[in-house]
Structure formats: C-alpha cells, structure tokens
Amino acid sequence: MADTRFVKKFSIRSLLVMLVLFGALGAALTWRVQELYLRNAALTADTLASGAILGHFGYGPFPDRLTAEQQEVVESMLDRDLRGAGVFAVKLWNREGTLIHSSDPSDRVGQSFAEDPEVAHALAGETAAEIIHQAQPENVEQFEYAGSLLEVYAPVEDPDSGAILGIFETYQHFEPIRREIMLSLALLWGFIALGSGTAYLVQLRMVRSMAEELSDTEAQVAEVNSRLESSFSQLEEHSLGTLQALTVAVDAKDSQTASHSLGVSAYVRVVGSQLKLDETELDLLERAALLHDIGKIGVPETILLKPAKLSEDEKSVVANHSSAGAQIVESIPFLKDLVPLIRHHHEHWNGEGYPDGLSADHIPRLARVLAVADAFDAMTSDRPYRSAMRVGNARLELLRGRGAQFDPAVVDAFIEAIDRGTLMVRDSGTPSRTRSSASV
C-alpha cells in the first residue's frame, strides 16, 4: 500500500516538474526562434546596405536630403527587389541621425532622431532589429498601415575605412513571420512532448520496478529494526525511533545495505568473542555494524548503484561516508560511543586508509574488528559492478591484507573462526548459514 502511494506521489510530482520544464523549454524555444528570424532580417538588411545602397549612392556620407532622382532609385529598388521579400517600406538616415528619406511621404523627413536608441546603435556600427507591437514616434505611419512590424536599422559603412555613411532601415509585416514562428514552434513542441511523454512513462515504469524491489527487502529491514529494538530496549522511545529512521533511510538508497549490515553485525560478534571482548564491547560492535554505513545517505544513488568501477572522483565521494556517518551519529547523544568505530572503520593498519590516516594501535581496537568484518562481507556479497567472491578467495584476501590493511590479530581470529566453522558465512542474496572454508 505504501509503495502504491509512493508511486502515485512520484507520478504526480514528476509530471508537474515535467510540465514546468516543458513550459520553460517552450519559452526558450520561442525566444530562440524569434531571435533567428530577427538575425535573418538583420543579415538581409546588412546585405542590402552594403551592396545595393552603396552601389547607388557611392562611398561618401549620405546627404542631408535626397534628390528626386535618388528618391526614385530607392523606391524602385523597394518595388523591384524588396516587396517580394516582405519589405513594404524603407527609410534612409544620414550619419547625424537625420531622416533623409521615407517611403511614406507623410513621415518627418529632415527631422533628427539621433536620440532614438535604435538609431544610436546603428550609428555606432551595430545592426539593430526588433519587433514593434506599439507605435513609436519614428514609425507611427508604418504601424498604422501594417500593425506589428519587424524593423531593422542597418549601418551603411565605407568598405575601405569602416566609417559610418548613414543608416538603411527596412519595415516588414510581422504577422506572416509570426505565423511561421508559431508553425515552427508547434512542430518543435510536438517532438518535445512526444519525447518527454515517452521519457516520463519509462521513468514511471522504472520507479514502479524499484518500488517492487524495495518491497522485497522489507524482511531484512524488519530484522534490522528488530535487533535495534532488542539492543536499545532500555532507551526512550523517541531515541529508538530516531535510530530506526536513520537505518531505514540509508537502506532505502541501496537494497543491499540492510543485508550487508546484518552480515557484518553477525561477523563482529563471533570474532569479538574469539578476541575475548566483554559483553559491553560486543554490544557496541554490533550496534556500530548496523550503522557503520549510515553516512551513505549522502552518497548519490548513481554512485552507489553504478554497475562499473568507480572513478577517482566517485571514490572520493564514497570515502566521505565514514566521516559523514560519524557526524550524524555524534549528533545523537545515546550513540556517541559509536562515533570512533564508524569514523575509523576504513583506516588501514599501515596508515594508508581514511579519513584520518591512522595506523596500528592508533586505530580504535573495535574499529579494527569492524574493518575486517566489513571487508569480508563486502567481498562475499554481490555488488553492481561484480559478483560475490568465493569464501576461500576472500579468506586469501584477508591474509594478503594482514599487517597492511588489517590488524594481524583480528585477521588471525577471523581466519580461525572460519576454519573452525564457528563463523556464520552467508551466501550473497540468501539467508546466513554455516559453511566452513573446506566446503567452498
């Protein structure tokens, strides 16, 4: 039932996120497509300014007013070359920002518009293109004629010196362009909707599969909780609830964590007894074993469940779990005795471990026991990137690490427990059962 509610909540929330992202992407695409049209219009105006206009007017600065012959040339170019491309009006400005020609005779030819931002940009050598949805002083007549406009101010430059000779301005009807933009966007949105919908359904199916897999681990998590309840029966109820919440949280990230914690807790009690630890130390070890990976709550699932060897950066993220776990446990008063065990269970006898590079007897004794049990269970368990190691091979690995990674005394006790058949060696993915190394 809980899994069904979780999947339902995930479905709704992920759908909302997808819709928000879809809207944001749509807005970005709208802006981008519109920018492309503006850029294309600017390029066309630039080409005309540097070609046709210079060809008719020469390479000198534009005059204060065009002759009748020059006006006829400009209007002829408009009728012959530009109307077919959607341009219905043109203007010319000299380099002082004075309007010297307009296709609309009612425009204020001879008036200066040097303070207009677009005119100023063009006089500075920048082509300015914009969509006009509201009339402005310099385009009142054109706006009344056509409504929304695509307006481009293109500087006319001397090809040799680069000096600004004047400005060539074009006006296009925006409505046909708007229809083209909307058609392009409709096609883009359609493909995005199809892809997003497919991705959402695939993701939803994966979440349902993961929920089912998590349900399969409920028995192991229940056993962890049962042990914790037994171990902390004298503590206040809210303290026990805190501990259980932490354990379940880390188990939920990786379905193998609960099984691993149970295996390690069984090993440390047997090996601790072999080392003549008292009952208080054995209880402390067992609790630390159940919580030694609590710091993995901060490790992304993409790293925990990666089906290949980790990169150096990913190893660094995982390596932080021991110190992170110690910080979590330290904040809970009744768990403070576990802090050194959890923090130092990855220290090496030769000082090459983490997080503090402790060596030999500087490593807390119980952390040394936990380190061997943790390593042995990890080697004999399936991992996303490899299959479980046979017990005999794992035994050899402990011997190879004796005196380098592991405390020699702890390894000797662990090997003796294996050889005597007193250690509960579990098969990966199955309940624990007694096996001697001879049966491997």
Explain how this protein is built:
This protein has 440 residues and is α+β, with helices and mostly antiparallel strands. It folds into 2 domains: 2-185, Beta-Lactamase, CATH 3.30.450.20; 220-439, Orthogonal Bundle (Hypothetical protein af1432), CATH 1.10.3210. The chain contains 16 helices and 5 strands. The protein has helices at residues 2-57, 68-82, 117-123, 140-146, 174-215, 218-231, 237-253, 257-274, 279-291, 301-304, 312-319, 321-330, 339-343, 365-379, 391-401, 408-420, and strands at residues 87-94, 99-102, 128-132, 149-157, 164-173. A 5-stranded antiparallel sheet has the order 2-1-5-4-3, with helices on both faces. α6 crosses α8 (257-274) and α8 (257-274) crosses α16. Mean pLDDT is 78; it is low at 428-440.
Give the helices and strands, then pairings.
Blueprint: H1 2-57, H2 68-82, E1 87-94, E2 99-102, H3 117-123, E3 128-132, H4 140-146, E4 149-157, E5 164-173, H5 174-215, H6 218-231, H7 237-253, H8 257-274, H9 279-291, H10 301-304, H11 312-319, H12 321-330, H13 339-343, H14 365-379, H15 391-401, H16 408-420
Antiparallel strand pairs: 1-2, 1-5, 3-4, 4-5
Helix pairs in contact: 1-2, 1-5, 6-7, 6-8, 8-9, 8-14, 8-16, 9-14, 14-15
